[in-house]
TrEMBL record:
<dbReference type="GO" id="GO:0036464">
    <property type="term" value="C:cytoplasmic ribonucleoprotein granule"/>
</dbReference>
<keyword id="KW-0460">Magnesium</keyword>
<dbReference type="GO" id="GO:0003729">
    <property type="term" value="F:mRNA binding"/>
</dbReference>
<feature type="zinc finger region" description="C3H1-type">
    <location>
        <begin position="251"/>
        <end position="276"/>
    </location>
</feature>
<dbReference type="InterPro" id="IPR040546">
    <property type="entry name" value="Rege-1_UBA-like"/>
</dbReference>
<dbReference type="InterPro" id="IPR000571">
    <property type="entry name" value="Znf_CCCH"/>
</dbReference>
<dbReference type="GO" id="GO:0005634">
    <property type="term" value="C:nucleus"/>
</dbReference>
<feature type="domain" description="C3H1-type">
    <location>
        <begin position="251"/>
        <end position="276"/>
    </location>
</feature>
<keyword id="KW-0479">Metal-binding</keyword>
<dbReference type="Pfam" id="PF11977">
    <property type="entry name" value="RNase_Zc3h12a"/>
</dbReference>
<dbReference type="InterPro" id="IPR021869">
    <property type="entry name" value="RNase_Zc3h12_NYN"/>
</dbReference>
<feature type="region of interest" description="Disordered">
    <location>
        <begin position="46"/>
        <end position="65"/>
    </location>
</feature>
<dbReference type="GO" id="GO:0004521">
    <property type="term" value="F:RNA endonuclease activity"/>
</dbReference>
<feature type="compositionally biased region" description="Low complexity">
    <location>
        <begin position="47"/>
        <end position="60"/>
    </location>
</feature>
<keyword id="KW-0862">Zinc</keyword>
<protein>
    <submittedName>
        <fullName>ZC12D ribonuclease</fullName>
    </submittedName>
</protein>
<dbReference type="GO" id="GO:0008270">
    <property type="term" value="F:zinc ion binding"/>
</dbReference>
């Protein structure tokens, strides 16, 4: 039990020393939610795992053996690239799978489509949360399609199972939505789901703001994962800015003047005049004065 809890929180990115301290203080039978709350209270952050990693010692290699270079890790494994300009992604696996399966089948292929979409964009931190009981063989009342995809994503350290157990024949399931919101909030990332998490919004005012500002909804169109181009509405940021840590400022766009050449505002006009791009926007009166001065001065010089 201790090893399973240790592996679970290591996948979330917490250090082994902090996890062992919490398990010693709370006991081996402590619930995962209590352990996670204690880790947060201690100030332990998932980023600590990278700083605690020690370089592996050099190993002797037998003649003729293969190279000892480590196997390359998949995108999203461990903590990702901290210098990446893109936000971390936390996917509600159950919501995505059921949406792709038309709310009838838990379609693991939908999770793969969502993960691949963010991979192609260059996101280096991707986590998918799925309840542990989805590992069990599918039943008639809860069918699962392409279940092998879950195992593949777990090996890539992208998929994380939220804990569950059976007590007297009844399944006790931890609330996976709380894991999703907590990890996304701590990572300052984006939640991918069509769920509004209203109960968690009422539970924590900070989560309420975070969910309202960082929830990315989506649709599936012919096996294509499609988030909206305007995640926060027509007047909100674009999808690129929404997924970036430092949104790019929009380029200024000049609206052409509705009066065109008949405009009499001159340099006071706030609109763009394409007919005079390289000269100051003088008023009509000033333009007439400038035109009349030219021949007058030329005549004086001739005299």
């Amino acid at each position: 039990v201790q090893q399973s809890k240790l592996d679970f929180f290591c996948k979330l990115g917490y250090g082994k020393q902090d996890i062992c301290k919490v398990l010693e203080s709370l006991g081996q039978e402590a619930l995962e939610d209590d352990v996670l709350k204690e880790l947060i209270r201690m100030g332990s952050k998932p980023q600590a795992q990278e700083s605690q990693a020690q370089p592996s010692p050099l190993q002797l290699v037998a003649r003729g053996s293969c190279s000892t270079s480590p196997v390359p890790k998949w995108i999203g494994e461990e903590e990702g690239d901290p210098s990446s300009p893109l936000r971390p992604i936390v996917i509600d696996g159950s919501n995505v799978a059921m949406s792709h399966g038309n709310k009838e089948v838990f379609s693991c292929w939908g999770i793969r489509l969502a993960v691949d979409w963010f991979r192609e964009r260059g996101h280096t931190y991707i986590k998918v949360f799925v309840p542990l009981w989805r590992k069990e063989p599918p039943r008639q009342d809860s069918p699962i399609a392409d279940q092998h995809i879950l195992e593949e994503l777990e090996k890539q350290s992208i998929l994380v199972y939220t804990p569950s157990r059976k007590v007297k024949g009844k399944r006790v399931v931890c609330y996976d939505d709380r894991y999703i919101v907590k990890v996304a909030y701590e990572k300052d990332g984006v939640i991918v789901s069509n769920d509004h998490y209203r109960d968690l919004q009422n539970e924590n005012p900070e989560w309420k703001w975070f969910i309202e500002q960082r929830l990315l909804m989506y649709s599936f169109v012919s096996n294509r994962f499609m988030p909206p181009d305007d995640p926060l509405g027509r007047h909100g940021p674009t999808l690129n800015n929404f997924l970036s840590k430092k949104p790019a400022l929009p380029e200024p766009t000049w609206q052409p003047c509705p009066y065109g050449k008949k405009c009499t505002y001159g340099n006071k006009c706030k609109f763009y005049h394409p007919e005079r791009p390289h000269q100051a926007q003088l008023s009509v009166a000033d333009e007439l004065r400038a035109k009349t001065k030219v021949p007058v001065n030329a005549g004086e010089e001739d005299e």
